[in-house]
Amino acid sequence: MMIYLDNAATTSPKPERVVREVDRAMRQYSANPGRGGHKASLDTAKAVFDTRTLVKDFFNMESEEGVIFTPGCTASLNMVIKGVLKKGDHVVISCLEHNAVLRPLHKLKQYGFIDYTVADVVIGDDEATLQSFRSAINARTRMIICTHASNVFGIRLPVERLCALAHSYGILFCMDAAQSAGVLDIKMTDAGYDIVCCAGHKGLYGPMGIGLLLINCDVPMNTLIEGGTGSESFNPAMPGYLPDRFESGTLNIPGICGLGAGIRFVQTKHRERIAEHEMKLIRYAYHRLKNDDRIILYTPEPELEFSAPVLSLNIRNHDSEEVSKYLSERFGIATRAGLHCAPLAHNFMGTSESGTVRVAPSVFSTQKEIQILCNALKNFSHSS
Ligand code: PMP
After folding, report:
1. How far is residue 331 from each of residues 7, 12, 26, 275, 361, measured CA to CA in Å?
2. Which of 3.90.1150.10, 3.30.310.50, 3.90.960.10, 3.40.50.1820 is the CATH number of 3-12+270-383?
3. Is any ligand 1 atom within 6 A of the Cβ of residue 146?
C-alpha cells in the first residue's frame, strides 16, 4: 500500500463521488452545451450552470458570470497576465511564486513588454511583508500577483492586507490560490480580491485538467484564445461579456462536473475541518522531527494562521531526491523532491542546490501514515 503524501502536486486518491460524477457526466452529458436547443444540450448546459453557481457560492462571489472554467491554474494565470497587462506596465510578485506566475511574466519582460519586481516575504512579520510590497510599487504598477500560500513551504501571505494595499494604490490584486483553494478560506467579495486563479485538482479534489479563473471586478481583459462560444455567432469578435469571453471551444464537461463533485465533497467534510486535520498531521510531524539535528525543517512552526499544511525538509548532507527515493523505495511513501516548480521560493529559503522533500497530506491522510514517515526519516539518518 502506498502512503501518498504528494497532495500538493495533486490530491490522490480522488473521492469516490468525484470518480462517479465524471463517469456520470460522460454518460449523461455527452451533448454539447450551448450549441443546440435540444434537451440533451440544455441538460448539459444546466449541469455547467449549476456548477458555476456552486463555485460562486463556495468562493462568495457576486455572480456566476465571473466564474470561468479553464484547463488549470497555469492557464488561468496566463490568461490574466497576458490579458490584463499593457506595454509599459509593472507588476509586483512575492518571492514565493510558482513558475505559473514567474514564467509568463518573464516572457513578457524578455520581449520588453512589461517589468516586474519580486517582493520579499518576511516570515512571521506581516507588517514587514506589507512594507516590502509597498516599496516595490511604482507609478507604472498595474497589479500585485501573489500566492495565497507557498506550495513548497506552506508559508501564508497576508493576502487580505495585500489586496487592500493594492487597492489603496488603485492597482489590481490577483491571487494564485492553487495551493489554498479548498483548504484556506477564500471569500472574494468580503476580501475584495479582483481575480483569483485556482487549480481544480488539488484541494478541491476535482480531476486534472480543470481550473478556475474567478473574476470579481470589471477590469478590461483581452482574450488569449478566440473561437466559438455558441453566442453572438455573427460577431467576428469575441463577446464582451463573461463567462463567454473567456470560454470559447467545447467545455470540459466531465472536468467541470467532477470539480463540482469535489467542491461538494469539501463542503460535506467542511473546509475548516479538513484544514485542521491536515494541520494537525503537519504539526505532529514537525514536533517529532524538529529535535533531530540531522533533519532540517524549513517550514516555520505550523500554525493555521500563518501557514498552509505543507512541510518541507531535508536530511543534512543528503540531496532531497535521494531522500524522496529512499522513502518511496523502502516504505512506499510518495513525497516530492526538488524545486516544486518554484525556484524563487527555493532561492528565498537557500535551498536551490539541494531542493527539499515536500510532505503534503490530504483529508485522507492519517496520523499512522505520518508516524511511518517520521520513523523512516529518522532511520534514514541513523542508517547513513
Ligand atoms: N500555482 C501554484 C502555487 C501551484 O502549486 C500550482 C500547481 N502545483 C500551479 C500554480 C499550477 O496549477 P495547475 O496544475 O492547475 O496548472
Report:
1. 17, 18, 37, 26, 16
2. 3.90.1150.10
3. no
